[in-house]
Design brief:
Helix content of chain B: 25-40%
Number of helices of chain B: 10
Strand content of chain B: 15-25%
Structural class of chain B: alpha/beta
Oligomer: heterodimer
Number of strands of chain B: 12
CATH architecture of the largest domain in chain A: 3-Layer(aba) Sandwich
Helix content of chain A: 25-40%
Number of domains of chain A: 2
CATH class of the largest domain in chain A: Alpha Beta
Strand content of chain A: 15-25%
Radius of gyration of chain A: 23 Å
Order of helices and strands of chain B: EEEHEEEEHHEHEHEHHEHEHH
Strand order of the largest sheet of chain A: 3-2-1-6-7-12-13
CATH superfamily of the largest domain in chain B: Aldolase class I
Distance between the termini of chain B: 48 Å
Shape of chain A: elongated
Shape of chain B: globular
CATH class of the largest domain in chain B: Alpha Beta
Strand order of the largest sheet of chain B: 7-1-2-8-9-10-11-12
CATH topology of the largest domain in chain A: Rossmann fold
Number of domains of chain B: 2
CATH topology of the largest domain in chain B: TIM Barrel
Number of helices of chain A: 11
């Protein structure tokens, strides 16, 4: 197939996960084999939208020499933009008033002016929707899924998950030993707003006493029963892993029951719900609620601990390095094959390309009949049901 | 290009809510009319649904009964495919979800939602429609010395409508007040203030750079506007207010700087402190927004007492029991 010289760009939307640099390396090495030029856009699309913020330039030319030792490094050489959205860019207008303006057309113009042929974008769920909108407006793009929670649909394994899993399992092991030493029940919260893969697999790896995931509403009386049996047997400590999105069975409110707040309701229409409830960033809330309720039900002292965002930092495992390199090289292969508007997905043993919109509004959750669920139950791990 | 129409509007206004029996928005018992649209983006905003000057979709997942029981909104209603469901319909979290990045606030999903989990914030109302509702409380105003307060958002963004509303209220004998942050062109203030009895205005931070950091824009125009307003409208009462946010502006320096700013003007009759609260927090999820003040708490009673003592001393009055 004929492959004329091309200039492609790579950027990152959303938060950090281990392995971002591996993708950069994969893209640069694969593109250099084809004689293509690769530039990195700094901080999502900010490098193009706000050039004034980057005295050294919002675009970074990426060469094989530059990425020589990069694949195993943590962080991201290009930075990411956690909440960057070219359709709603917060701006101060000429009247000093703040407003959100749509700069998507301007962004597409800059991309064209920079002679960037295609943008390879590494995205989580939110950045995927924004990229999809840009794609519908004409941006040629191939995207790569990233997720520490492994909740991106269409792919079996997002890069970042394996590193997060290794970190969480290591921390759980330490927490269990600390709990054993202090004769307490450790309640550890891990990422997983909609999908419990991280909690389930890490909890299984360390044989936790209980694992609570969003897919299975929990009844803490069941967990308490197991912990009390253990205490009766002279082992008065425990380890409970709770995904941040885990919820009690309907009708069984946790320790922090939802209360209607009349004052809040009065402030404006639709403003129902108790203080601190239904907050987008619920970090720590699940651990606090479960720990308090377990202490109440077992009379054993509990210690809540939140690992949360820590799982998104650090260096990638070998699995994630391979995946990152593979996804990067796969994205270039998609371009070589003339594809655009697709996501590179890993469906073992193949890397495939699926239309981006097939992954939008989809969450990869743990099925009730998953083999992992059966194994957890076989190991005697309580799932709170 | 701009999403936010910051020009003046008439003859209708985009009203968020009309709230009755308010006791903290000016003298006596008052009815507060909240207008939509704001020219700042304070991180602690307790009314995020008031920020944008356009109708906005809000989704309360607690009212949603899910795809299995209902699912009307999932049946080709949304032109952007922004509504979706996850799960099999038998778990507590099996509610409809909104992809806020695809939603365009068109509101087509609102009429099909039987439980009002999907609602639209903001409706166009005429002056007469607003006053009809406000006047239902007429007897309370007369007895308590109250009236109508227009708040927001930034009510001055809809200057033409606001001026018309206040003028008509005055004509009907209703006392008027506005709550404003004053980050608008002077013309907007000049148009509205002749019809206002009491102006409750924020002074959030004194340092321009810090003001920009926490509120989205600096306070140069605000200070210029306020000085000009104090001088241009000597018969109007002004009350300065600071929302007290721990770690942001709960220091003596800010209070003393504010006092130095307002004290030369006799028509600034008071300076109030509004302790930060998190009542607005839950509403951010309804709008798909991210609340950035997770780590902040309300100011302690001791801090408030200490700061209020400084204010009372400046106004030459004994410390008030609150």
């Amino acid at each position: 197939m004929e492959n004329p010289a091309r200039r492609i760009a790579i950027n990152f939307g959303g938060g950090y996960v281990p392995g971002l640099n591996s993708v950069v390396t994969g893209v640069v090495l694969a593109a250099s084999q084809l004689g293509w030029e690769v530039v990195g856009i700094r901080d999502g699309f900010d490098g193009l939208l706000f050039p004034d913020r980057y005295p050294e330039g919002g675009l970074v030319t990426l060469t094989p020499t530059l990425v020589e030792n990069l694949a195993g490094a943590g962080g991201c050489i290009l930075g990411t933009a956690a909440r960057s959205d070219p359709f709603h860019v917060r701006t101060i207008n000429a009247e000093n008033m703040v407003e959100e303006v749509d700069r998507s057309d301007e962004l597409l113009g800059v991309i064209q002016k920079e002679k960037i042929d295609t943008v390879i974008s590494v995205v989580g769920a939110r950045a995927l929707s924004i990229l999809w909108k840009l794609s519908r407006k004409g941006l040629k793009t191939v995207c790569v899924p990233k997720s520490v929670e492994n909740d991106v649909a269409a792919t079996m394994l997002s890069f970042g998950f394996n590193s997060g899993l290794s970190f969480v399992a290591d921390m759980l092991e330490r927490c269990r030993q600390a709990a054993q030493s202090a004769r307490r029940v450790g309640v550890v919260e891990v990422l997983g707003e909609h999908a419990g893969w991280l909690a389930l697999q890490a909890g299984m790896a360390v044989c936790a006493d209980a694992v609570l995931i969003p897919e299975i509403p929990y009844d803490l009386r069941k967990v308490a029963l197991k912990l009390r049996e253990k205490a009766t047997a002279g082992r008065g400590f425990g380890l409970v892993v709770v995904a941040e999105g885990a919820k009690p069975l309907a009708g069984l409110g946790g320790a922090a029951k939802t209360l209607d707040a009349p004052m809040k309701a009065a402030l404006s229409p639709g403003a129902a719900g108790g203080e601190s409830f239904h907050v987008m960033d619920r970090s720590g809330q699940a651990a606090a609620e479960v720990a308090l309720e377990i202490q109440r039900l077992t009379d054993q002292e509990t210690t809540p601990l939140v690992l949360g965002q820590l799982a998104k930092g650090g260096t990638p495992t070998v699995v994630d390095r391979q995946l990152g390199l593979g996804y990067g090289a796969g994205a270039v292969r998609a371009l070589e094959a003339g594809r655009s508007g697709v996501m590179v997905v890993f469906q073992p043993p193949d890397l495939k390309f699926v239309p981006m919109n097939e992954a939008i509004n989809q969450v990869r959750t743990v099925p009730a009949d998953s083999e992992l669920i059966h194994i957890a139950r076989a190991l005697g791990i309580s799932l709170g049901d | 290009m701009s999403n936010q129409h910051v020009s003046t509007r008439a003859p209708t206004g985009l009203v968020l809510n009309i709230q009755h029996f308010c006791t903290h928005d000016g003298p006596g018992i008052r009815t507060t009319v909240f207008l939509k649209g704001c020219s700042l983006r304070c991180k602690w905003c307790s009314n995020p649904e008031s920020i944008h000057l356009k109708p906005e979709l809000a989704y309360n997942p607690r009212k949603c009964i899910g795809e299995k029981e209902c699912g009307f909104c999932l049946k080709d209603v949304c032109p952007e495919s922004a509504l979706y469901a996850v799960g099999s319909g038998d778990r507590p979290d099996d509610k409809v979800r909104v992809n806020w990045d695809l939603c365009t606030n068109c509101g087509r999903c609102v009429p099909v939602c039987p439980t009002h989990a999907l609602t639209l914030f903001g409706q166009e109302m005429t002056v007469d429609q607003v006053l009809e509702e406000v006047e239902q409380d007429g007897s309370f105003y007369r007895e308590s010395g109250g009236g109508m307060t227009v708040s927001g958002g930034e009510c001055l963004l809809q200057a033409d409508f606001l001026a018309a509303l206040l003028a008509e209220a005055h004509r009907r004998g209703i006392n008027t007040a506005i709550e404003t942050a004053s980050n608008v062109p002077w013309d907007f203030m000049a148009k509205v203030l002749p019809h206002v009895d009491t102006v409750l205005h924020d002074i959030k931070l004194t340092d321009p750079e810090r003001h920009k950091r926490w509120c989205g824009a600096d306070n140069t125009r605000i200070r210029a506007n306020l000085k000009r307003a104090y001088e241009t409208f000597p018969d109007t009462k002004f009350i300065a207010r600071t929302p007290v946010i721990p770690g942001v502006n709960d220091d003596e320096e800010h209070i003393r700087a504010t006092l130095a700013f307002i004290k030369p003007y006799k028509n600034v009759i008071d300076y109030e402190l509004l302790p930060y609260h998190r009542f607005g927090e839950g509403k951010y999820e309804f709008l798909g927004a991210v609340y950035e003040m997770q780590d902040f708490t309300s100011p302690s009673p001791e801090t408030l007492k200490r700061l209020r003592e400084i204010i009372d001393e400046a106004f030459g009055r004994p410390t008030q029991a609150r």
